[in-house]
Amino acid sequence: MSKDKYEQIDKQVKAQTQDQQPGVEVEMTPAPIYDDENYLGSEKLKGKNALITGGDSGIGRAVAVAYAKEGANVAIAYLDEQEDEDAKKTIELIEKYGGKAYKVRVDISDEENCEQLVEQVINEFGELHILVNNAGKQFPQEDIADISEDQLRETFETNFFGLFYMTKAALKHMKKGDAIVNTSSITAYNGSPGLMDYSATKGAITSFTRSLALNLAEKGIRVNAVAPGPIWTPLIPATFDGQTVQQHGADTPVKRRGQPAENAPAYVFLASSDSSYMTGQTIHVDGGNYVGS
Predict the structure, then answer these.
(1) How far is it, in rounded angstroms, from Cα 169 to Cα 115?
(2) Nearest-5° Cα angle at 265, 260 to 266
């Protein structure tokens, strides 16, 4: 898809909000770009089975589409009944591109749920080769005094504990050549004054990615991450007020928000043998926001 197309879509985003986390894609205007028509698969993931948490919409949907284009079978996990329509659409997209598709509505903040989810995927596909830990929540607060114990627990239980539980369960079935891809965030590197607890979970994910990569290196299982910047996903209108949503991404060097489809190739790269000499690393897809060592 051309740069001009992304810029045109960005300018069409008006003030809008949703009243429940993590939000739904079907209510967004304009719809996020999750399928780059110019992205042509080349069987990079042929014969692979992938599980994507938060795979019903946003970045998760875009990754599911790209993986299907590359020849993978894809299972998606999502949280809430309100996301059923999004999940159904994602399943249709996976099947459109020739992949076997499977969906499960589940709360990954519970360890037993994660174990059951992985077993369901194994029963459906036979094997698991790729785990994408992508599910997340965020609740803005301008003052640390306003971050309640309940909010702190919910943010960490979904964003980090869920990722930890999913990884622990999936590794029982993974072997040499398999890959884990975690979704970190620019906030892990630059911080965010209004998303302190969320940023902390993403920092934890980044450190865990590095540590687990070292732990699993001898087994030949690679662990990497993608750190998106401001991307047009359901989490944005479900998090911020209308004015913030409309201006989202305008302060990046490229002066716009990113689209889910612009993240998907990074997840393909990290899941495929193209990145065979990479582990413990993070790819930054952030419009030029993050500059660091």
Answers:
(1) 5
(2) 95
pLDDT at position 2, please? 65
Residues 54 and 225: their CA atoms lie apart, in Å, by 15
pLDDT, tens only, 205-233: 999 999 999 999 999 999 999 999 999 99
Closest among 204, 205, 206, 254 to 231, alpha carbons compared = 254
Alpha carbon distances (Å) from 275 to 44, 75, 198, 216: 11, 22, 28, 16
Sheet holding 73-78: strands in order across?
Answer: 101-105, 73-78, 49-53, 130-133, 179-183, 222-228, 282-285
Closest of 190, 196, 188 to residue 144, by C-alpha: 196
Whole-angstrom distance, CA of residue 128 vs CA of residue 131: 8
Please state the rounded mean pLDDT for residues 270-284: 98
Positions marked catalytic: 198
Task: Look up residue 172 and give its two tokens.
Answer: 């029982």
Cα 123 to Cα 64, 75, 82, 101, 126, distances in angstroms: 19, 12, 26, 13, 6
3-state secondary structure 13-67: CCCCCCCCCCCCHHHCCCCCCCCCCCCCCCCCCCCCEEEEECCCCHHHHHHHHHH
